Amino acid sequence: MRYYNWKTELLRIGLLLTAVAAVCAIFDLGLWPLFIAALLVCAWLLRNLQHLSDWLYSGVDKEPPEASGMWGQVFDVIYDMQRETTQNSAKLQAMIDYLHSSFASMSDAVVMLDPVGNIEWCNASAHDLLGLRQSDDTGRQLINLIRSPAFLRYFEAERYQTPLEMTSPVNGGLSLSVSVNFFGQRNRLLFARDVTRTHRLEKMRKDFVANVSHELRTPLTVINGYLETFSEHGGDNPRWDRAVSQMLQQSRRMHMLIQDLMLLSRLEAVPKAGDDTVISLRSLMEMIREECGSAAKGPRRIVIECDDTISIRGNANELRSAFSNLAINAARYTAENDTITLRWYRDDDHAYFEVEDTGIGIEPQYIPRLTERFYRVDQSRSLDTGGTGLGLAIVKHVLIRHRAELRIRSVPEKGSVFTCVFPRSAAVQIKTA
């Protein structure tokens, strides 16, 4: 198709008016023929403009009017664009219908929200889990329909990196995991999943561990007592003495494991620390240094760097357990004469307790799993160190109860840094005279 532009149209009209002007000059007809020709050109332009207006008003899905030159080109381009737009709209609508039908068949609740939080669409499961009806609630504010304080804080904070665990607003026996994601022009897509069964299984697991640990403690104490008696009095057969010594060692290790399991069960049962006292870090770090010296096989250089102008507010026993676990881990995974640094400091936003060592380090792929129960990077070496495999899990739960987090940095063969990051509110400024 030939391409027309304004220069082509101007040339055509200019040639027409030039020819009329030449005829007028040759036959001495004056300016009236030129004036009439100009009016005819304007009438032709207005006629094409009227055709365009009528066509657009009646719907451009009809065939475009017949026209020549640039006007015909405009009609054809608009018609082609409209056909392409119609095809794209049909594809988009088909995709939307497909997504709606997919979401509608899900057992999870799905809610689509506009940028201001109004409901645009929801599936049938949203009624069962959240009490929402598409026919009645479309266009209404979601936060006016789900009034849970925890959900309101989560939704309005717009920090959706982790899901929210909450009770269903329409069925108190259901536990939901709610996640929100942005899409498009700050539209939001909300998913709510029924995790009641998972919660029940997790509770059963925790109860089982707590009950078994409690029941094992008494018989194990009796066994441990008799083994200590046999070990102290000895016997005539060295083989029996060695066997009793090994049994006593494993019995004590099992006792430590049970103690850690019971502590972990208690930490998981209560989400927030009950005690809230001001703790001096200098004295606590001195005690931890003594414990590290006892746990390490061989001498270690233990350095304390403590900002004595600040203390920490929290549960003394829990924080001592967490900090001690980090320090003893460092002692177990360092060699003789390595350096362990215990550090306490603060910046404008947080307070930090840090344990840095110059030990064997950890490969990057293992770091995300270090706080899992019983997870060991090196099974043989971990068993030699005598740990229970629960130390970092205890640290994680203690920090969660104090609104803190554990950060780990490590370079293999160079050492590791375990940092407890507390909110600034946990640090207490000590008044000096």
Gap from first CA to last CA: 92 Å
Radius of gyration: 39 Å
**Widest β-sheet, arrangement of strands:** 2-1-5-4-3
Look at the structure and name the CATH superfamily of the largest domain.
Histidine kinase-like ATPase, C-terminal domain
Name of the CATH first level of the largest domain: Alpha Beta
Q: What's the average pLDDT?
A: 83
Assign the CATH architecture of the largest domain: 2-Layer Sandwich
User: Which quaternary structure do these chains form?
Assistant: single chain
The CATH topology of the largest domain, please? Heat Shock Protein 90
- Total E-strand runs: 13
Q: Which of globular, elongated, flat, extended, rod-shaped describes the shape?
A: elongated
**Range of strand content:** 15-25%
Please identify the structural class as seen in this structure. alpha+beta
* Portion in helices: 40-55%
